[in-house]
Amino acid sequence: MKTYCKDIDITDPEQIEPFIALCFAGKTGRRNFQRLAMRYSDLTQGQIDEAIRKHDNGAFAPAIKGVAVEIAARIRRRSLDLLPIRYYERADESNGKIRLIGVESTLQQCMDYVAVWALMPLFRAKIGRYQCASIPGRGQVDGKRAIERFIRRKDPHGTKSKYFVKMDVRHCYQNLTRRAVMRRLRRDVHKNPVLLWFVDALLSTFQHGFSIGSFLSQFLCNYMLSYAYHFATEQLYKIRKRRTGRAARVRLVGFVLFYMDDILFIGAAFKDVKKAARLFCAYLRDELGLEIKPIWHVKALAKEPIDIMGFVIRRDRTTVRARIFVRARRQFLRAWAYLETGGYITIKAARRIISYRGYFSHTDSVGISAKLHIVEVSRAASNVISAAARAELAAAA
Asked: What are φ and ψ of residue 299, in 5° steps?
């Protein structure tokens, strides 16, 4: 049996130092990470402010080294001694769901990066090509392009992509258990007991299954679902006997995509897609202890588009999901009205505008983009964000 991560020694500060540097990247402007840097180095607040003003990331090297030494020492003595995770409820703007978000201490965030990057050889080997989350470059746009490629370029006549089913795992993070995860990790990483202990110790800090907001949780969730992904892509088939008497395996679905806990199957026959969905639900329940919401239905692509990852995908075009479009349209129209009357865009509105811009950039939205003045408003929003960043650096100086 192949094993992974056997060459990494997380008790060696030099080996985990690059992982902590990745955690610090982009976070040095946060006060909590600045306090962490001062705690484990001789840096002062003035030196940190000067480094940020000059974009001198090398100034944080002593702090990163100090944090690496501290984490390695805690691992060696088998005591992480972390502050409890703080939890709060937040409403999801896209659908109104109330989600329980966990906020970890800065030291635990660094430990999450150590665990994830130490396990990265395993994740790269196990996480499937079309598990579109966590892995850099495999996000919403990559998943959207993959669906478009399958239903348009690979199947221009629509013979292999007549039907689809979209399923959703019920409370995926909350229902994943530490015991189930560690059982599989012990099989795949059994030659690195220190790393196994470390991951198990981090998981023991979660109070409600996996923690939404944890860097480690999202990778372990994808790792667990990778077993379901490979089952869907390799084991969902039927046996068809040919005239010669020989039996052949025929896949029930032609395309499988996971977007974290959203699952999409696309196939040629209604009964095959339905059978695949039923077998998949049974596997998820029996092997991973997870449950698919019982509201899924097999649909004809000719009658209903695929609505996933914020996009609505049809054979001839791709548009923005209605809920997202309404919110984005309101932001762009409001901003354009301010600009026309000589007003200005607030930093909060500018950040929202930039986040919505991608939906229009990657869909067939040329006409509506012109009506909403998306190019002009996005340029103004970018200028507002740049000016705010410059003002923050000047204030720090």
From this structure: -125, 155
